[in-house]
Design a protein that fits this description.
The complex is a heterodimer of chains A (297) and B (539).
Chain A lengths: L10 H4 L4 H4 L2 H25 L35 H8 L1 H28 L2 H15 L2 H11 L4 H28 L2 H8 L4 H39 L10 H9 L8 H28 L6
Helix pairs in contact in A: 3-4, 3-12, 5-6, 5-8, 5-10, 6-8, 7-8, 8-10, 10-11, 10-12, 11-12
Chain B lengths: L36 E7 L13 H10 L4 E3 L5 E3 L2 E7 L4 E6 L18 H12 L7 H4 L3 E8 L2 E6 L6 H4 L32 E6 L5 E5 L12 E7 L2 H9 L5 E2 L7 H5 L4 E6 L3 E7 L9 H10 L2 H9 L3 E3 L22 H10 L3 E2 L5 E3 L2 E2 L1 E7 L5 H16 L3 E7 L1 H10 L5 E7 L7 H4 L17 H12 L3 H18 L2 E7 L1 E6 L28
Parallel strand pairs in B: 1-10, 1-11, 18-19, 18-20
Antiparallel strand pairs in B: 2-3, 4-5, 5-7, 6-7, 8-9, 9-10, 11-22, 12-22, 13-20, 13-21, 14-21, 15-16, 16-17
The chains are: A mainly alpha (297), B alpha+beta (539).
């Protein structure tokens, strides 16, 4: 079945060609690296959830503090409480996975609703939502989070709710822009003329067929952002709290020993953060190029 | 926290006269060279620089360089005359007469002639300190003074409400000039004086740079002779790792308090001296006796048995400290060395818990009448708290092993304080106390000190302890007081309202070019005017 899209002239030429054949090589490399990271994250999450770890990540061993890698079976060494770093790295993803998804869900759902209201109906909605977005944008996110932590307690879910809410304007403006662009297209006009319900036009023709790539890209970037946010908060001491491991608090506690030559407790989680965030960003970037066809062969 | 100058003074003076050999202001006669700059690093910035409104150790150390008291403490911990050249004590120790030196001038303000130091300044300092609108931790310490009167320009008479032990040592509070503060009635942190103080001390505040470095210059007219080192620069750091690295790369010459984890690195370096000094302080786990589970002293003792304090001290603090058994700081005269710290014996801990009626439940947690022995441990968040984190996590681990469930809860500093001192919403906390020489634990364990913002946060109450504390405060006989305090120590150690942990040895690290360095355990800098740098190393 053929459908109308903004690329109406070449629909017939390209619609049967699978998208990976249209994509640039680098984009495919990016995306496959990103997917590899995503799989690694999911596998780590499952391993952690079923407790399939080399060591108990909470087991304190005061006799073996800051042991270098490969000591007594600890592949990545032990941290400042003698706990196995590899196990803590694997289970550390638990700190991000569900909270990160929560942040993404909040940003995408609320952002999309705002975007539709502002973009499709415009007028008063547009003005109101622009005000809300400006309000959210003008508030420093870190300050908001620190206020939250001071008022309640340092809980990663509270923090991620704020991260999600402060991401709403980004998603909202993307969706709004996209809809305003699509609204001028003939297929939407045609759909309206055919008497299709707004619900169907919005969800099927606009969101599903034309915005899903934007949302997927935002989701991958959102995950990267959630991890980064937790890391910076951990460095201030307000992120996930001991004894629950997160990569951020592992870097923090290891950093104190970095200058003394004991680099492994901070380097391992720092590299994990680096490669994971890079993975999510490249995935987002690659998907953006492929799905939006910014670049073609 | 208690923050009072601790003076290790044990001698009790009845009535005596101190004479000072006449010394002319001018150069020192010890033959050591003048010149050079000392940069020292501090972790954090002082809020104020005057001796009255400040309540942090950083400003305390700076005011030691800028100001003097009526009396001072020498390196042998004996009282020596400073601003007062002699003092006479009479009338059963109720009247103190101070004869002031006549050759002392205040640091000159820019473009002004230096003003002489007189009795008016002493009276002014006392009045401003005691004014109800002045917020100062010193007020409580000097409530024993009834009046301060001026006899003539260089004579001051102080009468006490009651004779007290070691009163003379307490007159080491710093004197500020009458022409200093803008508001002559009371001193607040808004007064420009607190940021640009003038004193009589060996160093004058020159300026504060944009980087918040505080520059102090030698006072040529210092009455003990011009200090040897030309300039002291106080450099604030926001990170202790960076401060240690700054020392290693010679960006600073001294760290007043070295982080314990950096000791091995500095110890191994021949360029630096690591000098220990003992502060009267200790760390502890405090229990909230409002929780019915913690009322039984056997439970609290079981916890202490379960904790391997030696292992923590060795692994986390490189053995730089002493394990303690009771409520007084070791090194204080009140500490009872006959009371041994409880040994590490988890089996004994389990037995005590069983005795108190707890049995192990299905999940391995002890329970009594269906109530689980599950407690919250509240810890304030600080960035540099990884030593605290270690102790707290290890404590949790030790107690888990005897079947006690500890829920660690990290809280932001202010809300932690509110939970502990105002709402009393906690079961266990980890904290430390710093003491002065008076070995006064009344605010920690007397039952009248239970209440919002009072120091007996755990609501510990024992009539015997109460009466011993009062008795110890009232007695004038040092030996008797010692006996009472030893008894007090034994009782509190047995009752275990805290799990007493240890007192840590503080270390200062400095470059070898600094010579003749003597450090006071609390005020740190009183002898800094005698420090010097050899001419060849002054660059």
């Amino acid at each position: 079945m053929k459908r109308y899209s903004q690329y109406s002239t070449n629909v017939s030429d390209f619609s049967d060609v699978p998208f990976w054949k249209k994509a640039g090589t680098m984009d495919l490399v990016y995306v496959s690296y990103g997917i590899f990271i995503v799989i690694l994250v999911i596998v780590s999450y499952i391993l952690g959830a079923f407790n399939l770890l080399p060591f108990d990540p909470h087991e304190i061993n005061i006799k073996l503090l800051m042991a270098p890698p490969k000591t007594a079976g600890h592949i990545l060494g032990t941290d400042f409480m003698g706990r196995d770093i590899l196990s803590r790295l694997i289970i550390g993803i638990q700190a991000y996975f569900l909270p990160g998804l929560l942040a993404i869900a909040i940003a995408l759902v609320i952002g999309t609703c705002f975007g539709i209201l502002a973009g499709y109906w415009g007028g008063g909605f547009d003005t109101a939502i622009t005000y809300i977005n400006n309000l959210l944008n003008s508030f420093p996110r870190l300050v908001l989070i620190l206020l939250m932590v001071a008022a309640f307690k340092p809980d990663i879910y509270y923090i991620m709710v704020i991260v999600g809410i402060t991401n709403v304007p980004v998603v909202a403006s993307l969706i709004k822009g996209k809809i305003q662009f699509l609204k001028q297209k003939y297929f939407i006009e045609a759909a309206t003329a055919l008497g299709l319900k707004n619900r169907i036009i919005i969800f099927k023709h606009i969101l599903w067929h034309n915005c899903r790539s934007v949302l997927i890209i935002q989701a991958t970037l959102g995950m990267a952002e959630a991890i980064l946010m937790e890391t910076s908060l951990s460095y201030l001491g307000f992120g996930v709290q001991e004894p629950i491991p997160s990569w951020g608090n592992m870097v923090l506690s290891g950093a104190n020993y970095f200058m003394q030559g004991k680099f492994w407790p901070s380097t391992a989680p720092a590299l994990a953060i680096l490669f994971t965030i890079m993975g999510f960003h490249l995935l987002g970037d690659g998907l953006n190029n492929i799905l939006e066809m910014k670049r073609s062969k | 926290m208690k923050r009072l100058p601790n003076i290790l003074l044990l001698i009790f003076f009845f009535a005596f006269i101190m004479m000072l050999p006449q010394a002319e202001a001018g150069l020192k006669t010890d033959g050591n060279p003048d010149g050079g700059t000392l940069n020292y690093g501090e972790y954090g910035r002082p809020a104020t620089l005057d001796p009255i409104t400040s309540n942090d150790m950083i400003s305390l150390r700076i005011s030691e360089l800028v100001f003097n008291g009526l009396v001072g403490i020498d390196e042998k911990q004996e009282i020596v005359p400073e601003l007062a050249e002699r003092s006479v004590i009479s009338d059963n120790g109720r009247i103190y007469t101070f004869y002031l030196r006549k050759d002392i001038t205040w640091h000159p303000r820019e473009g002004e002639e230096p003003m002489p130091f007189t009795a008016d300044d002493v009276i002014f300092t006392y009045n401003i300190m005691m004014h109800p609108k002045t917020i100062t931790p010193l007020k409580v310490r000097y409530e024993f003074i009834k009046t301060v009167t001026k006899i003539d320009d260089y004579t001051v008479r102080v009468s006490l409400k009651r004779p007290i032990l070691n009163a003379l040592a307490k007159f080491s509070f710093k004197i500020i000039p009458k022409h200093g503060p803008e508001n002559p009635k009371f001193l607040t942190r808004e007064d420009p004086f607190v940021h640009k103080p003038i004193g009589t001390g060996p160093y004058m505040l020159k300026s504060i740079t944009a980087d918040r470095e505080i520059i102090l210059e030698a006072n040529d007219n210092y009455f003990k002779g011009r200090p040897h080192i030309d300039k002291f620069v106080v450099r604030p750091f926001a990170d202790q790792n960076i401060m240690s690295q700054a020392l290693m790369f010679n960006a600073i010459d001294m760290i007043v308090l070295v982080n314990h984890r950096d000791i091995p690195q500095i110890q191994g370096d021949k360029r630096f001296v690591l000098q220990p000094y003992n502060a009267l302080s200790y760390s502890f786990f405090g229990y909230n006796m409002r929780n019915p589970l913690l009322v039984d002293k056997r439970v609290r003792k079981a916890f202490t048995y379960a904790v391997n304090r030696q292992e923590m001290l060795s692994s986390f603090f490189q053995d730089q400290g002493t394990i303690i058994s009771g409520p007084f700081a070791p090194g204080s005269w009140a500490y009872n060395l006959d009371v041994q710290p409880l040994p590490y014996d988890p089996q004994k801990g389990i037995e005590l818990l069983n005795e108190a009626g707890f049995v192990k439940g299905n999940d391995g947690i002890m329970e009594k009448d269906g109530e689980k022995l599950s407690l919250s441990l509240k810890v304030p968040i600080e960035k540099e708290s990884e030593a605290v984190k270690r102790v707290v996590l290890a404590f949790k681990n030790y107690l888990n092993k005897i079947g006690v469930d500890i829920k660690g809860e990290f809280k932001e500093w202010l809300s932690w304080k509110e939970d502990v001192f105002l709402n009393h919403d906690f079961d266990i906390i980890f904290a430390s106390w710093v003491f002065d020489d008076s070995a006064d634990i009344s605010s920690l364990f007397h039952s009248s000190e239970i209440g919002p913002w009072k120091n007996n946060f755990g609501a510990y109450s024992n009539p015997e302890v109460d009466s011993l504390i009062v008795e110890s405060k009232l007695t004038l006989d040092h030996e008797k007081r010692r006996t009472i305090n030893r008894k007090l120590h034994a009782i509190v150690a047995d009752e275990n309202p805290y799990t007493f942990l240890w007192t840590l040895t503080n270390y200062a690290a400095f470059n070898k070019k600094l010579r003749h360095v003597a450090i006071h355990p609390y005020n740190f800098f009183p002898y800094a005017d005698d420090w010097f740098i050899p001419a060849s190393e002054q660059h």
